[in-house]
Amino acid sequence: MYQMLDHTDISILKILQENARFTNQEIAEKLHKTASPIHRRIKRLEDEGFIKRYVAVLDPEKIGRGLMAFTHVQLKDHSKDSLSLFEQAIIRLPEVLECYHMTGMYDFILKVAVKDLAAYHEFLMHELFGIMAIGSVQTTLVMKQSKHEGAFPIAVPQQPFPLAHKTD
Predict the structure, then answer these.
(1) How far is CA 109 from CA 7, 70, 95, 96, 132, in A?
(2) Which residues, other chains included, contact 10 with Cβ-Cβ below 8 Å and sequence gap of 6+?
(3) Alpha carbons within 13 A on the beta-carbon side of 75
(4) pLDDT of 108-146, one tens digit each?
């Protein structure tokens, strides 16, 4: 039988999205449980892939990455090999925070963080255009960030989410 995510699992995920530094004891207190079962549930959520990793959210200005750009890329060659080659190369670049293979006019949308406009120009000239023949690039620069939310809204479902593996 497959194990399902229940109200406690969902609550744990919400709490960890709010602050991943909460200890098992702190989470247990919030949920009126004890720390041991919370620890087991978190471990299971990690093992099942619901929790992929834990990160610290940094201030881009303070670390020299104050210019954010969304770069829309259309490749000249749309073969499976070219798309794969581009994707493999682009995800290795530290300036690229996110990469999405898209439908529509552009093949990829990249979220790029650099120091300033000169650094973005260097990124285009020496990194992006060096990967392969690019059909076109359209860049939109972020003027102001109004919202940045890393947490996914989740609610207790009508039907529980099945976990990936069977349990005994």
Answers:
(1) 36, 7, 13, 10, 16
(2) 154, 155, 156, 157
(3) 22
(4) 999 999 999 999 999 999 999 999 889 999 999 999 999
HEC states along the chain?
CEEECCHHHHHHHHHHHHCCCCCHHHHHHHHCCCHHHHHHHHHHHHHCCCCCCCCCCCCCHHHCCCEEEEEEEEECCCCHHHHHHHHHHHCCCCCEEEEEECCCCCCEEEEEEECCHHHHHHHHHHHHHHHCCEEEEEEEECCCCCCCCCCCCCCCCCCCCEEEEECC
Q: How many CB atoms lie within 10 A of CB 57?
A: 8
Write the pLDDT tens digit of every residue in 14-71. Answer: 999 999 999 999 999 999 999 999 999 999 999 999 999 999 999 999 999 999 999 9
Q: What pTM was computed for the model? A: 0.80
